[in-house]
Structures are given as structure tokens and as C-alpha cells.
Fold this protein.
Amino acid sequence: MELPRRIRGDELLKPGELAAVRQRLRMIAPKHDLATVIACAFDHRTRMLPFIFADTRMVPAGVRAIGSALADSGFEKTRIVLQQWNRNFRPSRMELDGRIPDMFLVSSMNLHYERCMELIRDAHRIDPKYRPLIIAGGPKCLYEPWDLFSADSSNTASADIVVAGEEYVFLSLLEILLSFRASGESMVSAFHRARDSGALDSIPGLVYARGERNGVAEELIDTGIQRLVGDLNELPDPVSGYGLLEPPSRGTTMGSQPVPAGRIRRLSPIGSIVMTFGCKFACPYCPIPAYNQRQYRAKSGERMAEEMWRLNSAYGIKYFFGADDNFFNNKERTLGIIETLARTTYDGVKLPSRIRWHTEVTVHDTLLMAEHLPLVRESGCRALWLGVEDMTATLVKKGQSVDKTNEAFQFLRDAGICPMPMMMHHDKQPLYTRTGNYGLLNQIKLLRKAGAVSLQVLMITPSPGSKLFDGTYTSGQVYSRVGSRMVKPHMHDGNYVIASNHSQPWRKQLNILSGYVYFYNPLWLLLAIHRRKKTKVGGRPARMQVFGILGVTQNFRRTLSWALRLMFGKIERLSEPPTSSIPMRNVGTDPASHIPPVVTITTEQIPLSTRIDPTLESPVVQRTPA
Ligand code: B12
Ligand code: SF4
């Protein structure tokens, strides 16, 4: 179920609060000489289309943001290790500045959870006298923070504390820990004293363990839903984060120096950049609007321009990808930003002559922006990813239709911006229909005709923190095992069919592969090369064909055997959504905010358009927001 909303009017931090905590930390940082290693968990089994290449060639913004926040607050002895580049990294062997770090931070998305727990377990191999404080964060922790605490007495390694929030929550935690820390005291010991005094309870967005039986926590305390920073200009400068990266290596230990500035561009040719957060739509399979407490947050155009310019000057990064949920969410705001990006000059050089940026938008908002798309291009934009999902709007309605998608794609192509559609395949959608546009291939054909430059086809998969999440489990759609193979977290990426009511789910798996082969193939590559001089988007379609053809080989390698299992194996299903095995509560006696209470409702109470399977008849259980 969705994360509950804070009391209206109390969703955001007061203006200046984030800047103030950064300032206070800078005053006390010199007394503490902290060394911190931040690891980004990454499961290499997830490497396939549509994310292959972007997944390792773009330093994730989450770890970079936390690294920047530490460096900005005066804790420069910080190193970011990406499992993308350092797959053998062992926290038990890490040293920074010749010593075991004081804090080990780990960031994870859901699908990298196994790797995340391996890192945590390995960090626990360090002699307890010297063990760093283990803090977990990132998208996994925002929705399922309890999962970072082991309930298994034979394998008790857990995070010490989980940050179910952003920079402010982390920096506030650090401030409290340092206010407890005596000179030379370990961060683990300072954490225990701060926790036992109740000092952490005043920071919403934390989850920590209390009590212990056979090495397992007796209960988890949830300090509630975080307050968000409203003005993203208050965020620390991202430039310093790139200076903290551990160089790629096959070794288990860390190097003595971070990646030199001159090498960053080659390792991370795409720079992720936070520009806006939030989306006005409410797609039932998406956790984003609730996570953002239905707020729309943004940086100013001036700040974005400055960040791009400085990242380009410092590291040579030319291509940027916005961490936006829906960049065109608000027309007026967007116009302000793109006008600024388009007209900004530094040292007499126009910003858009140096940079190219790309991000995510919706079809609906693209149409509203139609007349301004040339200006969007002028500001440096060259490609936009659009959640088309199902063009006939049978699966979900967010203002898209065949005609509107066509129109939006045409406007984009005319402006010289590549339309990059993202589609969702689902139980009711056949591979092909003789009439109409309902089939997957029918829609891909339409998209290609409309000018799509790349393609993403994912099977609709339950996403933690979304409205549909619990119901998908309780209605028995989610698989636990097929034949002898368990469904593991890395398979929850939309590339594997792991939630379906279809009687022949292997067809769905093969449909996705067919969709990719239909779009990415040598014939279309040749055509794209032939047409490259005739279109405003130039050689990009041909380049995307090359990436797609190479990438789809990985999809075959990884998912074809799953299709065979779905064909011949026995499918076992889950009947409950995942939840904490350790009792969890809010600071008082209220139920934990990050596990909202369960109430039973029937399928009929869920609007048709919001069901994964619209024909589903069985009763389902859903959680209601507190
Ligand atoms: C850009 C992006 C991508 C890029 C990532 C490229 C890259 N290397 O960075 C690409 C296109 C490759 C991608 C792919 C996928 N993505 Co994606 N992506 C995003 C997006 C839009 C922005 C990510 C970002 O940069 N955010 C900005 C940073 C600053 O936010 P953040 O990472 O959450 O970090 C903050 C906090 O979490 C916290 N934090 C983070 N780490 C840590 C660590 C510690 C110790 C602490 C204290 C705090 C902390 O502080 C940070 C600063 O505020 C997000 C949505 C969003 N708006 O966040 C989805 C999102 C991350 N993606 C998501 C998903 C599911 C996927 C895919 C599986 C595809 C899919 N089915 O949708 C694939 C996975 C590919 C793979 N192999 O990993 C989900 C993750 C859900 C989850 N709970 O894990 C998200 C959240 C979207 C959603 N559905 O809600 N994605
Ligand atoms: S339009 Fe995209 S970001 Fe917005 S709610 Fe729907 S899926 Fe989520």
C-alpha cells in the first residue's frame, strides 16, 4: 500500500532547515575526523534491456547525493564504492585513510537487495571492537525499511539503523550521533547511547532495532514518515560527490585514491541530476506520488544550469539524465526552467552548446507543451522518455491514446527531440490482434510509425509503496517459486513474468522478447542508417538500434530459461505481501507508519482501471493509509 501522508501542511521541512543542519555540522566536523564508506548495492544479474549500458555508465544520484552531503558538511574523508564497477568489493577488508571507517553506508534498490544484505553481512565480519556503524538507505529502505533487519537467529547480521528518507534525515541523524559521541568513541557505541536515550525518536524517517533475543531484535521502532525538503536548491552541491568515487577494480579492497577528475567522463559519460520530484498523476502501480506526499518539488533553472555547467567544467560530463518523475508536470514551472537553461551563458559560452539533457515526461503534458518543444530542444534536451504503458488506455488511463501518442511523438520529432516510449505488458494484452490496436506488436508498430527511437517493454510487476501492491499478493498473482527456482528480488525488475493470472504465463515472457526483436533488428538498423540525414533526430535512431540489438541478447540469455520454467514448472504463489517478521511500531504505541494497518476490502471496491487484472473476482486485502 502507499506510504501514508503526513498531516496536511506538515509534509515539508521549513525553508532553510536543510541548509541549517549542513551549516551546524560544518562547525563540529573538524572535532570528529570521520571516515565513511558508502556502497551502492548492484546485482549484475539485472543487466539487460532496457537499462543495460545506462545502469553502469551513470553514477547513481542516491549515493552521490549522500556523499556530497557528507563532503559538504565537512566530512571529506568519504569514499563511494559502486558494485557496478567493483563487484568483488568486501566491506570486511575496506580501509580508508589507512583505517577501518567509522561508518559503513549502503544504498539499495529493491532488486539489489540480496547484494545489499551480503554487503551488510560481510561488514559484520569486522571485529566488533572496530566495526563501523552500518546505516542503510535508498529506494528499498524508503518503502520496506524493516527488511534490513534479520529475523533469522542463525544469520543475524542487520543494519544498525535504516534511513527511510533523504539527505535531511541522514544529516539530522549524524548531528545527533555526534552530539553523543565522546572523543575517540566508536560510532556504534555513540549510536547505542543516542538510541537508548530516545534522542533519535524526534527525527521522522528512521527505523532502528530495540531489545535482543538470540541475536534478533525484539522490536523495530519507526520514527514516522520523513518531512521532505521543498526547495531543492537547498540540496548540497552534487559536484563534490563525483570526487569521492572508488576506481573500478576486480579486487576486494579499496584503492588509496578516488577516481581522478579526468577519468570520470569515460566511466560515467551520463551524469544523473536532480531537477524536480513529484507527479500529479496517480497511477495505481506507481509509488511516486505518495512518496512525494503529493508535493511537487524543483530546483530553480539557474541552479540546474549552474550544476550542469560545473559538472561539465570539472569532469567533462556532457550528457545528463534528470531524476524527474514527470519533468513537464507543471507547464509554467517547466517554461521558467527551459527558458533559463536556453539563455544561460558562462564566460560567453552558451550552456546548451556544451550539454545535452534527457528526462521523463508524460504524453499528456508533452501535448500541453507542444508549442514550446523547440525551446525545450534549444535548452539542450535531445530525448524524452514517456510512459505510454498501453496506448489504448485499457490498463491505465493517464490521458494517453493512440492519437494523442502519435501527435505527441510527431511534435517531439519535429522539434528534434527523440521520443522514447516505455510500455507495460499485462495479462489481458495479446501479442497481436488482427483488428484494432490492442496487441503488443500492434502498438509497437504504431509507436515505430509515430517515430519512437527506443523501446522499453516491461511486464507490470508489483511495486512496493503503490496502491496495487498488497492486492496483487493477496489475490495470488505473485509467484514464490516456479519449478525448483525461487523468485528472487533481482527478478522484480519487470523483465521477468513473476506476477500473473494468465494460464500460460510463458507466453507473456516470450511476448516481451518478441516485442524487443520486432523493434530492434538489423533491418530497422539499416533503415535508420539510411534515413539518418532525412530526420531532425539524426543518427540517434541508428545508435539506439545498435544498443538494442546488443542489449536484447542479454534478455534472451537471462529470461529465456525462465520462459521454459513457466511452461513446464509448477507455479507456487504467495498469498500475503511481504512484511516485517519482527514486531514494528511507531515511537508511541501507534502502528508503524512504514507498515500501514491492514483492512479488508473486496475487489469490487477497487476501480476497474486500477486493477492489474480487471477481471479479477476474488476478494483482496488492502492496507489503508493511516
Ligand atoms: C534515473 C532512474 C533510473 C536509471 C538509473 C541510472 C543510474 N545509474 O542512476 C535507470 C533508467 C537505469 C533506472 C532503471 C531502473 N529503475 Co529506476 N529510477 C530512476 C529515477 C527516475 C531517478 C533515480 C534517482 O536518481 N533519484 C534521485 C536520488 C537522489 O534519489 P534516491 O536514489 O532515492 O536517493 C535518495 C534517498 O533514497 C536517500 N538515499 C539513497 N541511498 C542512500 C544511502 C544511505 C546510506 C542513506 C542514509 C540514504 C540514501 O538519499 C538520497 C538523496 O535524497 C527513480 C525515481 C526517483 N525519482 O527517484 C527510479 C527508481 C529508482 N527506479 C526504480 C526501478 C524499479 C527501476 C527498474 C527496476 C525499472 C523498472 N522496472 O521500473 C530499473 C533497474 C535497473 C537496474 N539494473 O538497477 C524504482 C525503484 C523502486 C525500489 N523501491 O527499489 C524507482 C524509485 C522508481 C519507482 N518506481 O518508484 N532507473
Ligand atoms: S505518470 Fe509516471 S510518475 Fe506519474 S504516477 Fe504515473 S507512473 Fe508514476
Remarks:
- Residues 540-568 form the longest helix (29 residues).
- Residues 454-626 form one domain.
- The chain has a mean pLDDT of 94.
